[in-house]
Specification:
Elements: H1 2-20, E1 31-34, E2 42-43, H2 48-54, E3 70-71, E4 75-80, E5 84-89, E6 94-99, E7 104-110, E8 115-121, E9 124-129, E10 134-138, E11 145-150, E12 155-160, E13 164-169, E14 174-179, E15 184-189, E16 194-200, E17 203-208, E18 213-218, E19 223-228, E20 233-239, E21 242-247, E22 252-257, E23 263-268, E24 273-278, E25 283-287, E26 292-296, E27 303-308, E28 317-318, E29 322-327, E30 332-337
Antiparallel strand pairs: 1-30, 2-3, 4-5, 5-6, 6-7, 8-9, 9-10, 10-11, 12-13, 13-14, 14-15, 16-17, 17-18, 18-19, 20-21, 21-22, 22-23, 24-25, 25-26, 26-27, 28-29, 29-30
Length: about 350
Amino acid sequence: MTLLKWRVFSVALLLAMSVMMPSLTKAQSMTEIPLGSGGGGTASAGTTEGFANSVTGLDGDAAGTPSAATNTTGPEAVAFDGTYVWVATQFNDSITRVRVSDRVVSGTFVVGKRPVALLYAAGSIWVANLLSNTVTKVTPSTGAIAATYNVADGPGGLAFDGTNIWVANRHSNTVTKLSTKGSVLGTFRVGNRPIGLAFAANSIWVANNFSNSVTRLSTAGAVLGTYAVGRGPFGVAAEGANVWVTNYFGKTVTKLRASDGLNLGTFTVGDGASGIAFDGTNLWVVNNGDSTVMKVSPSSGSIVATYVTGKGPFSVAFDGSQIWVPNFGSNSVSTTAAN
């Protein structure tokens, strides 16, 4: 009888625990804001296979021939300027502005060909135009183009070191240092297909997507180290004394110590881990293949919560209170409160 009672109690306890902790297993919803109808182009979205088949259309690298066409303008990159969230819609060569206060779409502005990366820095929006080999500087209040600067082949990642703009050139395996007035201050070799960039520990950290590594550059452009990470590193984010890297094909994130690049652990997330941002408390990791974004604890690497996005997201931004995720295959941007 004692054994039977213990078994009944154990089952009851497990059932109670499952009821008390639904957030650990159930994906939560986000608000989805349409950015407009498609028509700018077609591309497959939301699958790791689509990304691998191209280096071609899924994240904007070339026109490609989509394996499963979805009518989409290809919202990929996102940035916050203090008032507006900006989304790069690459297949109509434009950027769209969404007012954070009321979530109203308040303008679309033409830039270069295939905009795939955005950055707010030094009072301007900076746009990497992948197939124009340029970076466009935009005035946030009006959407007007202030200037356009030539860089190397395939600009597709951006970062700011507090003084200068850094541009990852996917097709030339280089990073360009650009002054805020548009002067090219140097172009430096890194690994194969650099995509994500971040500034941490007075260094530029570069995710080399086809080298399974991260390169650390000094602000003068010298290589300070190259560190192995997971398969297909994509996004990079600074978090206190650490740097986090998403591994697209590895379905993981890697934690590096910023002082010396020491690998502090690799943690499982979702399929197609791509964009990543730190909100001051938690990390947010976009999973392109799963169409989700995960809130991740930086201390343990554990998943705190999972949110359903639109189709095939690649990037994420934090506006001080909300998370924003553009949906590549849905012509929309999803948002939720960070905490």
